[in-house]
Batch of 3 targets.
Target 1
Amino acid sequence: MAFAIKAAVDDPRARTFAFVAQKTMYGGKRIAAGDIVFVFASENEGGRGLIARGVVTSAQAVARKRGVVRQTPRVSLSIRRTALAKRSLGRSELKPLTDWDDGQPATELNFKFYRQATNKIVGISDKAAAFLNRFF
C-alpha cells in the first residue's frame, strides 16, 4: 500500500522531510518504514500541492492522550525524498472531481485530501499511486 501526506512543508526541495504528530485517516495509521509516500505541501500552509515522492525511513505512532474519548490516531515520520514532482497537482486541479463514486484516482485524492481540508496522512489505492507516479 502506498500513502500520501498533506502537511506544512518548509523546504519543498529538501532531501528529507520530518513530520511530527500528523493526523491519520483512511488507513494512514498503517504507514511504516519502507513504504512509498507522496508529499503534498498543504495549500492551507502556503504550499502548492504535490511536490515529492519518497520512502518512509521511520514511523512512530503517537500515544493517545488520557481522558480524551475520541482521538484521531497520529503518527510522526521521516521521509527520504526519491523524486521531485515535474508537474503541478493540487487543490485547483482536483477540486472539480466530486463524483465520489466514479472510481477515478484523482477523485480519490480529492475526497481524501480536500473534502475535509485538514492536513493528514492517508492510505491510497494502487490506482491512485500509479496516477501520482505520472507526475515524476
Note: The two ends are 19 Å apart (CA to CA).
Target 2
Amino acid sequence: MTAASAMPRSLTSGRVRLRPIAELDNRAWRRVAEHFRDPEIAFLNGTPPNRMPVWLLRRVLRADARRRDRVTYGIFDEREDYIGTIELYDVRHDRATLGIIIGERSHWSRGYGPEAIEALLDEAFHDLDLQVVQLHTFADNPRAHAAFAKVGFSEVRRATVAGGRVDVLMTMPRHAWLERRGLRVAESVRARPSAAR
C-alpha cells in the first residue's frame, strides 16, 4: 500500500492528535511558517531557515502531502493547539523515513514528540503495512535522539556530513514495534482488515 492510497484521518496517542495537513487552519499555517523560519529549529533539522511567505509555504507543503510517497500531519496538543509537524516520506515498498518538528518551545522535553511518533508508527505498521521506519537526526541534538530512543528507535550508524556534523541513522523494524506494543506479528496480521491489503 502506498501512502496516497490510504485515506488521511486523524490519529491520536496520549495527549496528541495528528490531523492531515490539508485540515490546518490559517492560524496553524502561520505557526508552521514561524517554525520553518526559526534559525534554531532549522539548524536542528540541518536546513536553512525557510523564508517563503505563508501562502507559498502552504501551497508547497500541501502539494508535497499529496505525493504518493508521503503522509504529512499537523500535531495538536490536548488543548487543540498546533505544535508541530510530522510525516513519513520516501514511502517505498515496505519502508519509509520519519521526520518531525515540535516547533513550540513550550512543548519541548515534555513527551509530545514521542507521543506523536507513536501515533504515526501505528499508522505506518498497521495501515500502511511497512516493515521498517527509519529517521535521521544529528548527534548534537541530544533531545531528539532521546525522544527517538524512548519510542524504541535503535541507532544503526553515524556518518560525518557536510559542515562536520554527525548524522545518526536510526531504525524501527515492525517486529520491534509490535513487541513493544505487546503484540505478536501473527495477531497483528489477523487483526488487519482484508480491505487494507
Note: The chain has one domain: 3-196.
Target 3
Amino acid sequence: MEPDLLDDLERKFQKELNAGTVGLILLATLAQASEPRYGYDIAKELEERAPITKLGALYPALRSLESYGLLDSRVEPSIAGPPRKYYRITKDGRKALAAWTQQWKLTSQCVNAMLKGVNHV
C-alpha cells in the first residue's frame, strides 16, 4: 500500500474513532467536575488528558449533547473577554454516561481480544 494512502486511511480511522468517543469523553469530564465548566477550560483539560480528541469537534459535540438533554448550560459574563457558556451534566447525561461506559468496556474488550496475538509490523 502506498504511504499516502496509508496515511489517509489512518487519518480517516482516527477521525471516525474520535467522532465515536468525544461524547463519552465529554460526559465523563463533566461528570467528574465539581462545578459547571466552560468550553475552553474543558479543551485545556482534554489537551492534557485526551490528546487524540480533536478540539474542533468539542463545541459541536457540546451543543449536540445539550440538544439531547444530556448537558445543561448557562452563559455568564467574563471579565477577561466575551461571555462564557458553562456546561454541566444532567441526570439523563449521567444515565447515558453509564450506558455508554458499559458499551465502551464491551467494545474495547472485544477489540483487544481480536488484536491479541496480531503481529504488528
Note: The mean pLDDT is 90.
